[in-house]
Structures are given as C-alpha cells and as structure tokens.
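Honest question from a wet-lab person: if I give you the sequences of every part of a complex, can you actually get the arrangement of the whole thing, not just the pieces? Trying it with mine:
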Amino acid sequence: MTTDGGKSQSVVEAKGLGLTFKTGDGDVVALSDVNLEIKRGEFVSFIGPSGCGKTTFLRVIADLEQPTSGSITVNGTSATEARVNRSYGYVFQAPALFPWRTIENNVALPLEIMGYADADRKARVSKSLELVNLEGFEKKFPWQLSGGMQQRASIARALAFDADLLLMDEPFGALDEIVRDHLNSELLKLWAATQKTIAFVTHSIPEAVYLSTKIVVMSPRPGRVTDVIESPLPRGERPLEIRETPEFLQLAARVRDGLRAGHSYEE
Amino acid sequence: MRGLMGGKTVPVLIVLLAIVLFWYVMAVVMNAPWQNTLNGRANLTDVPLTEFALQTFTQDKPVLPAPHQVIGAIWTGLFGSAITAPRSLAFHAGITLGATLLGFGLGTLLGVLLAVVIVHNNASDRSLMPWIIASQTVPILAIAPMVVVGLGAVGVTGMIPKALISMYLSFFPVVVGMVKGLRTPEQIQLDLMRTYNASPLQIFLKLRWPASVPILFASMKVGIAISLIGAVVGELSNNAGGGLGVRLLTGSYNGQTIQIWAALFIAAALAAILVILVGWGERLANRRMGVRA
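Yes, you can. This is the full assembly:
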C-alpha cells in the first residue's frame, strides 16, 4: 500500500445508515441516517454519551450488527465480505484474552485461525508484541499482567494479521488516567509506524482530541451524527503537552459544545 | 509440629479415633446377644466385661465385625492369596475396576457428545434434555438386572453389561456439566471469533472446549465415583462373573459379615483412589492452562 496514492480512497462509507433494535419494550433506534466517510490513513474518533450508537456503528462496520436501512461499504465491499476477508482488527472494551493461553498464544490466535504457517506466525507474534512494547511477556498468562498490559496484548492480537483497518471500541475506558495517557501516546506512535486507518470509540473529550485527525460527535435517542470536526492539530507526532495549547482547548470546546447541543435537543 | 497442628491432619485423626472407638463399643453392644447365647450353651457364667468384649470381637459371623477383623480380612483378601485366585479380593477389585473404567470412559464420551449436540442445536436442547433427566429418575436397581439378563440372553456377558450400567450413570453429570461448560464463553469472546471469520469447528476447538475443561473435570469426579457404583450394582445381578459386588452378594447369602465389610471398604477405597486420580489429571491440566495456583 502506498501512503500517497491511496490517501483519498475511502475505507468506510456509510450512506443513510439506520439500525433499529426490536426489543420487548418496543423498538430502539440505535442509529438514524448516519452519513460518514473514513478515508485511508485517517484516525477517526467517535464521541458521545452512552446510548448514542457509537459502539453500534463500529459493530456495523465490523459486521457484528446488521443495519436495518441505508448502506455501508468497507474497503469497497459489503461489511460481511470485509469481515470474511479479515480486513479489519477489532479491539474490544475488555481485553477478552483467553485465560488458558499465554500472551504469545493469545496474539497467535487469529493467525492459527487464519492458517498462517508456523514460522510466519512466530515472526508476526514477536513483531506485534514489539509494537505494543510487550517483549519479554510472551510466556506469561493474562492474569499475570496489569489491565493496561492486557489491553496492549489485545491490541497486538488485532495487529498480528496486518489488517489495514483497526476498529477500537473504548479500549482504554477501564484504565486509570496515567496508564491511559501513556497508551494514547503509544497508540499515536503505532499509528504513525503502521500507517493504518483507525476508528476509535471513546467518551473522553481529551482522548478524542489528542488522538484524532477527525472527530465525529454523536448524540443519543436516536443515535445520530451531530458534528464532524477535521482536526487542525499536526498529524503524526503529538507530545502530551499539546493538550495545553490554545488550538487543542479550542477544539475540545467545540466538541463539548457539540455534545451539549445534542443533549439539550433531547431534554 | 506447628504444621501438623495447623493443618487438617490432627482434626481428621481425632475424628477417626472417635469413629473407631464408637465402632468398638457398638460391636460389643450388637454382638452381645449372640455371645450371651454362645456362653449360655457353653455354661459360661459371670464372664468379666473385658473378656466378654474380646469374645464379641472374635466371632465368626458377627452382626457387626470389629475394625481389626475387617482390616484383617482386607489384608488376607488382598495379599493372602495369588492375585488370580477367586479368593483374592484384589482379583475381584480388578474385575470391578475394569468395568468401572470402561463404563466411565464410554459415559464421559457419550456425555461430551450429547453436550456438543445440545449446545450447537437448539432443537436438541429442547428435545434431548428432558429425556436425559428422565433417564436418571428410573431406579438403577431396576434397570441393572434387565440389562445384565437381557444382554446375557443374547450372549453378551462379563464386563460389557456392567460397563453399560456404569455408562448409564456416569454420562449424566458429564452432559449436564458440559452443556454449562461449553456455554461459558462470553459474548465478547464469541464476537472476537466472529471478527476472525472462525468456523464453528474452530470456535469449538479454540474457545468452547478449553473454556469448559474445569467443568469437565468436576463432572468427571462425580462420574467416576458413580461409575463404580454402577459396576457393583451390575455385579449384584449376576454372581457368576466375580467382582466386589459378587463378594457383597455371596457374603450376605452366607452371613459372612466380615467379608461384606471388607468388600465394602475396598470399594470405597477404590472410589477414593479413582477420584484422586481424576483430581491429579485436573491439576495437570490446570498447570498447563495457566490457572492461578
């Protein structure tokens, strides 16, 4: 993949996307008329209060939920084809490591399933663990690692088979702020190193502003996109201190306003 | 010494001592009427209590044999004759053990297979489960003779009929446990496998099966103990084939209470050893699967 030639190519394209869950208490509209494009190489954050459909949208991209209206293409194909082609790596809210597997075997899990050869598997596992700074923990079992390290292992697992698209669903939501800051800057480095496209769900404004090239603000009932903000912050290297600059604070204020607007609409 | 006092050893030994004491007292009490009759016939009167107690411990066919009589019978039964001799308790224990292990193996296999079918097929969950539960409400004592006699009529004798009874008992805890065990994976883990486009077989081998191993071992501990009971019950229906059950049966025909107790204790010890062996297997599996010690 060439970074320049493919830059304008859209990886995810949603048109008039809607999803309604049928429950015992009636229908719940999780997503309504979502139009969005994610281009190759972008880091897109989805932010909004709980119930705004940000996780649902990510799950639709991953073909874990089926939209009830509109259309979505992933890598130019249907979401199902994209999943069957293993064109994305998914990082869940919890690490979801298999407790009976060592860290290296957890990272090797998708490679085993996809039928990679032994030697290739070994090389990819050590490369992925290197990317998340977990060298030396190959033989440990998940319970022997801290929460932050477990989540890093789950990121390594999503990276192992080299999908171009990384879908991350509040991966650092359960971690304390110090660990989260650290992982955020590591994630940016990883993104720069791997040139992947990342869709990242969060409910933290600083996290969204710090990481993203594009911020999608969503609001609940029905879940919809209220604002799409292109970040003026520099691409690539962003020191943590960038969060004290006026540009950063201005951007954060705009996101906060967007969230507030979405909320007052509902009440 | 501290370790001994702090551990379970001392309390367990104290309880054991209390049981043995109670047993000896009960042996005197329960064997007293017959000893009085014997002493009356021999015109023995005014036997001192200690001597009378010793008499009640040395009867040939006591109502309740004293512990040392049972231990003696176990000792001579196990080591007093060649292992191939029909008098040897080890010989009979071996026959029972064979049927137990075969039945346990078949039962575990059947239990796992049924659980796999039930977990992967909704219709069989609803149609099979009630029958599986109903199978255990039928008294095994009523089924065992039919199995043994019925199979005997078509020429199947020896270990197979007994193993089938063991299987009938031991598949149940395995199927109930494994249905639960194979369903332990969380939605997030199943979603993860879906993102990899994993096949149902891969999901089974890499997620459901390893996730259910702890429950499998717990079920097998129950299963192996009742497998032994199944084999003994099977032997009670046919005294030609030998086994601990046959020793119990012939013992009760002939009033050989010492023989009955000896066979009983061997059976109990055998069950305990088998459960311990399954426990070792469990620990081995736990270590390989990184379970926190």
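Two things worth pointing out. Residues 200-236 of chain B form the longest helix (37 residues). Chain B is about 80% helix and 0% strand.
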